[in-house]
Amino acid sequence: MKFELNDAISVLERTPATLQTLLQDLTMAWTHQNEGNDSWSPFDVLGHLIHGEKTDWMVRTEIILSDKPNKAFEPFDRFAQFQNSKGKTLTALLAEFKTLRTDNLSLLRSKNIAAKDLERTGVHPEFGPVTLSQLLSAWVVHDLGHIAQISRVMAKQYKEAVGPWPKYLTILNHTPSE
Amino acid sequence: MKFELNDAISVLERTPATLQTLLQDLTMAWTHQNEGNDSWSPFDVLGHLIHGEKTDWMVRTEIILSDKPNKAFEPFDRFAQFQNSKGKTLTALLAEFKTLRTDNLSLLRSKNIAAKDLERTGVHPEFGPVTLSQLLSAWVVHDLGHIAQISRVMAKQYKEAVGPWPKYLTILNHTPSE
């Protein structure tokens, strides 16, 4: 599938509502438990998505579209949520994510990005030059990956409860390193 | 996490809305493409969930709770959707799933299931005796597994578009056998 800005936005704009529908008002047994060890709970993932809205996707988009000569992205802090989400409720995080995403997509639309802009580049701290279309595609995939992760972490809470069923419920049997 | 009927229902009742939020009005490039070979598209998965509502979860629950001596479950047809979904739109499938799930959860609630009922058993064609709580837990995990699968299949459509990012977007790198 070739990148098209409208296709990307149509997924990005629905993620807050998808997570709200999936998680709002569930008990903490569903939302605050992880897959063991230092894995993340749905609550942790939501904090990570919020930090991405604040420091990653649109910040990097602006760097790519700016006229400044320095196109280097700051490294992304994958663990900021453990400090930032402290003392907050899941409901508060869902609302915060929705506001940030709405604002970021308004900003994205305001850029009137043309086909040639999608080929402009920034410098990723590890990958080197990446194009705007690669960055925006990664934003979409990042959302979908974390929706899948949240579903998997919730499913894992019933790993024992299903008795013999893990054979046909393969989501119970793997823990990718995210 | 120990099985509790209310916890299970609180997840089961939101799946139709979650899928509607995730999929409704997206282009067919997002909803009708799969992960290659004979893997399933989001549209195929939705048909599979519908078939489960019609022939699996509550049908088996009724067998377990019935007074009939024969507690054998019929094998579940994992490929019925390829015939049954033909000519239907995604919007129609989303609506059908929502209606079937609502009706099934009304039926489930009407059973006034007590703690001792959760230990009653039916006979799975492959596993042998399974308890009602195992069956209902499997229903929940089955939903969550397919939400994760749909997210993954959508993400895969941008596998090339993200350029170097698959290293940190691990959802792009695996295809479990569902």
- How many H/I helical runs of chain A? 8
Broad shape of chain A: elongated
Q: Percent range for helical residues of chain A?
A: 40-55%
Strand content of chain A: under 5%
Walkthrough of the structure:
Two copies of one chain form a homodimer. The first copy, chain A, is mainly α. Chain A contains eight helices and two strands, in the order H-H-H-H-H-H-H-E-E-H. The first copy, chain A, has helices spanning 5-12, 15-23, 28-31, 42-55, 57-65, 81-84, 90-110, 132-156, and strands spanning 121-124, 128-131. In chain A, strands 1-2 form a two-stranded antiparallel ribbon. At the A-B interface, helix 1, helix 2 and helix 8 of A face helix 1, helix 2 and helix 8 of B.
Topology readout:
The structure is a homodimer of 178-residue chains.
Chain A lengths: L4 H8 L2 H9 L4 H4 L10 H14 L1 H9 L15 H4 L5 H21 L10 E4 L3 E4 H25 L22
Helix pairs in contact in A: 1-8, 2-7, 4-5, 4-7, 5-8
Give a brief rundown of this model.
Two copies of one chain form a homodimer. The first copy, chain A, is mainly alpha-helical.
Features:
178 residues; two-stranded antiparallel sheet; mainly alpha; homodimer
